[in-house]
Amino acid sequence: MYPVRLGLSPAALCLGLCALALATPAQAQVKPKPRSLPIVDGFWEGPYDWPHASVHTALLPTGNVLSYAYGTSAIDVFWTELDATHYTASVGYLAKSLFCGGHVLFADGRLLVAGGTTSDPTFGHVKGPTHTEFYDPWTHAWSAGDDMNHGRYYPTLLTQADGTVLALSGINELGEYEQVVERYDDVLGWNDLQGSELLQDLYPRAHLLSFGGVLVAGPGPVSMLFDPSLPAWYPIATTQSAYRAEGCSVLLPGATDRVMLIGGTDDGVIGTDTCESIDLASGSPSWQPAPPMAYPRFHHNALILANGTVFVFGGAEFDDPAASVLPCEIYFPESDRWRTVAPLHRARLYHSSGVLLPDGRVQVGGGDGEHSLEIYWPPYMFRPRPAIQNVSSDLQYASSFTLDLDGTPATDIERVALIRPVATTHSVAMDQRFVELPFGISGDHQLVVDAPANPNLAPLGVYMLVVIDGHGTPSVARMVYLD
Ligand SMILES: [Cu+2]
Q1: Are strands 478-482 and 394-395 parallel, antiparallel or unpaired?
Q2: Separation of 260 CA from ligand 1 center, angstroms?
Q3: CA 429 – ligand 1 centroid, Å
């Protein structure tokens, strides 16, 4: 491993930008033309040169960010761990090719990576290995996990209520679509769910719902509901768009079991700006049109921000790098509207990824051949922010806990939420969820908060805890463990 150092510290940057923001209202009177301000549109920091294209990016419980890519052989595969606070990175090599595998933060805080690719990606990678690896964020070391029963290239991993992990789909070791769903349990290892066979798309858009069912929302048009306890599959609804390949699917904040599909491509050539959503809590769920984005996109990513809005970056309007979409967009679930925000510095297309950081910024990297990293500062980074002074880092299901605020009046707080750290690749943010918690005021600067009672709403494991004020401004997150 060797260290990498980036140029600019967040503190120095904030000082510069805050000065810019403060200087502006007076200028606005003589210059009414709309202009981009960080406090309105956010700000993209960077780009920084990076040792690899970040095909896979995962937030770790330490607050550091792990990313990795591909190489011409397994020993060529770089990984990096970035300390996004101090802007230092460690770089190493993977023992196995985990490129195009699946990943989630396991319940114990290690990153579980399953599958990958067995052959040189430049010559077509058509077989999936059975191997799995764990990355330990505290020792910065990889170790081999149990082999799956089936090889998987382009699988999705999804954490269940009890912290076990499902592996869905992927191309197996024979080069065929793997139809069996298997489950990882750290005592029992990997086991097939007998009777779970279903031919699925690669990297299925899977979401755990409040009643324990799993919605697989494409990218194909027929949305399936999977009951892992039986197991059994049921067709639940058909999308209005035929196909949403390379599009995104988000379990929406501010609702239970509401999922939105964002963009994608039906033919692999032309992207769509259309979106649609489904409410699985309704009696007869069906896909309904949602407001379109300002730009058609595929190969984009959609990440839940710290204030419960949905940030979309990257992608292209059609299959040409010249058609890259640099402007980004934020969806506001409460008002059901999109807003276009600051443009990326670099195109973020196929094999790009990103994660929400604990301080509320978004780290973005990759795209094939794009050896760079840039960091989005959402508009809330430039507003006065509420702050958490003290909270237990170990939360228990169905119990309340006190949360002390640092100077922020308790009456300013409108929402308290747990945000699951994500691992992203191929437009899929595995395990992404934003869980709102009921709370009351127990002092001038103190809240009493109810931890989730239903583990399907918040599976066992690590979360970022945030408080959000009436302006939609979130605090810096505290990492907590829910069990
Ligand atoms: Cu790939």
Answers
A1: parallel
A2: 23
A3: 14
